């Protein structure tokens, strides 16, 4: 979305509104330009955009939608390097009057309930993995992988791997003790080159967990058709013992 186009639309809609700039929510309804088109792209506050358009910001409070709140919460998390408390939210509001009030975030419930919401928000983005990692530690939604106990002699410590077949949405989930050798073996068998996506250091029992998790996306054998969200879920793990 071009910045000059947004500024032009701010001026146009303000002119149609008697010279008064619209709030960001009504602006979206009138133009289809959402907060994600300007927030963090060109301005950190809607008032800054309005002022750059040569107008006075509308001081009338507007109800925030969930995505807008979660984006602010995500960026504050990144700025602090930890999960924000309600005290942090109050401080953010004091420093920036256009930051949503701490009370507006209470609609998400407890900290764990907020974690579930923001992790879903992060899964819809490609640049919030660092934020998701901080919230995942307190989230009940984080995958709880249970590995059944086996005899030490039968336990085989190695890797659960995720490989992609060329540019296709075809992924293989398997176990190996030698990732490089396994990549070479598969490369000989397939028409397109296999690209390693991620490895989890673990024992073979965890491979069965991922097969069960993606059972409705299984193509044949250990091959699955996975979405970007599925791939990100796998990549969250580095080691499970």
Q: What profile does the largest beta sheet have?
A: 5 strands, antiparallel
Mean pLDDT: 78
Which regions are unreliable across 5 or more consecutive residues at pLDDT < 50? 140-156
Globally, the shape reads elongated
How much helix, percentage-wise, in residues? 40-55%
Question: Helix and strand succession?
Answer: HHHHHHHHEEHEHEEH
- Cα Rg: 24 Å
Total discrete domains = 3
Strand content: 5-15%
Find the structural class using helix and strand composition.
alpha+beta
Total number of helices: 11
Strand tally is 5
What's the arrangement of strands in the largest beta sheet?
Answer: 3-1-2-5-4
- CA-to-CA gap between the ends? 46 Å
Can you tag this structure with a few keywords?
241 residues; alpha+beta; 5-stranded antiparallel β-sheet; 11 helices; 13% strand
Brief account:
Helix content is 44%, strand content 13%.
Description of the structure:
- The protein is an alpha+beta fold.
- It folds into 3 domains: 3-52; 66-136, no CATH class; 157-235.
- The radius of gyration is 24 Å and the shape is elongated.
- Strands 3-1-2-5-4 form a 5-stranded antiparallel β-sheet.
- Helices cover 44% and strands 13% of the residues.
